[in-house]
């Protein structure tokens, strides 16, 4: 690195540097400002879009709860056109609606859509957990086992193993079901689930 001994030499060096690099620096500054402006615009656009999505979701969701005409169709349209978390919530609500009506095919359709759009790992595990339960109701046992593989996280382990045990039992695999229920008991389940798992294990022993 050069060392400049006088103030004039330092000034001349700075002038020389800008003479050679001034254009590149100017372009860099312009690009930096443009990038910053673009980033701020994108953030503003995203925030506006999420605010609008939130309001639309609340309106469509309330209509479904109130059993208003065309409420299911409107919420379905919302779920399909929104790939953010609100679209996932809409699909989850629709899946619950269909499951209560014993329309498991449409419940599976909505949960599959939700699984494609869910970006948060915990939310994705919840979607897949519900999807596996619906697939069990449809007797799609192999599909349910594959779906359960995507239910991850310690907080979901006990619930995942309970459904896995139910699926394996439906397939006639009593030993596999017993192992799954036992793993669920070892996964620190809630008190309610603990009681349920013990009851299922006891039924296998009887």
Automatic annotation (TrEMBL):
Keyword Cell membrane listed: yes
Record's bilayer topology term: Single-pass type II membrane protein
Molecular function (Gene Ontology), one example: protein-containing complex binding
All residue ranges annotated as the Ancillary SecYEG translocon subunit/Cell division coordinator CpoB TPR domain in the record: 15-205
GO CC terms, sorted: plasma membrane
SUPFAM superfamilies the record matches: TPR-like
Annotated compartments: Cell membrane
Keywords per UniProt: Cell membrane, Chaperone, Membrane, Transmembrane, Transmembrane helix
Primary subcellular site in the record, as a coarse category: membrane
One family name in Pfam for this protein: TPR_21
The UniProt record lists the keyword Secreted: no
Segments passing through the bilayer: none
Record InterPro entries: SecYEG/CpoB_TPR, TPR-like_helical_dom_sf, YfgM
Family according to the record: Belongs to the YfgM family.
PANTHER family in the record: ANCILLARY SECYEG TRANSLOCON SUBUNIT, UPF0070 PROTEIN YFGM
Name this polypeptide is given: Ancillary SecYEG translocon subunit
Source organism (scientific name): Rouxiella aceris
